[in-house]
Amino acid sequence: MEDFVGKTAIVTGGASGIGFGLAERFAEARMNVVLADIEEDALERAVKTLEDRQVPVLGVKTNTMIQASVNAMIDEAVERFGAVHILCNNAGVASTKSSGPVWTVPTQDWDWVMGVNFYGVLYGAQAVIPHMLEHGEPSHIVNTASLAGLMPGAGTYGVSKHAVLALSESLASDLAETSISVSVLCPGFVRTNIAAAERNRPGDLNVAETETQNELDEAVFTGMLERGMAPRDVADVVFGAIERDDFYVLPHPAWDEVVRSRYDAVLARGKVASVDFETLMARAAKGEQI
To answer: Which H helix or E strand runs over 215?
Structure first.
């Protein structure tokens, strides 16, 4: 895409973190902005912030786990602004209540994490692609995965992000001869509220916290996020990728060797690669953004 002025961008998970960083960047490009988020209070604050800057903005409370909710959000965006040109399927969660081997993880965790992280992306694509094909103008879809989608492990979160990566690659192939381009965003640690994602877990998918070590894990996770990249910096990288029609978007070069070692292990047909988090944490403590 080259022309952004007056076009419309939708961002799910748009009330905070990477989502709001993207919204701010689109606003600076003089686009109409639609913020979709499940957290109503945060959504209202985000909308007001953009309204105060004279940005044409619409906030829609959206549960990306529910296809009808995503469809209704897209319909509302079209009704307000007309054609939609950018969709950022950005909403994501990570469970901090369950840990241990994947076969012991409660079904509720799988349903929640896959429901938001994977099905939310799928539902967004299913809802917006026919609309984008119909209006025929240059358009772009950005799916937020993670570096966890390029590496082994990470439990439910890693599985969901691998699925987002595979879905995005399929979409890019299927849309190659159309006016729609696709990117997949695979960031490392970013200063977001994902460590507190449990606040938005549906009550019917709640589980008891079974591992005492989770308190330590969550503290380490939160500390890494606090030292992570600013959401706005990620948004700048994403905007450049949209302009160039880049597919793979990796804002954290510090992970390149880790990613390469995983694929080297695949081609070596050997054992599963591992991630040296202690070394990464030491690098982060020295100020390197990971």
So the answer is: helix 214-226
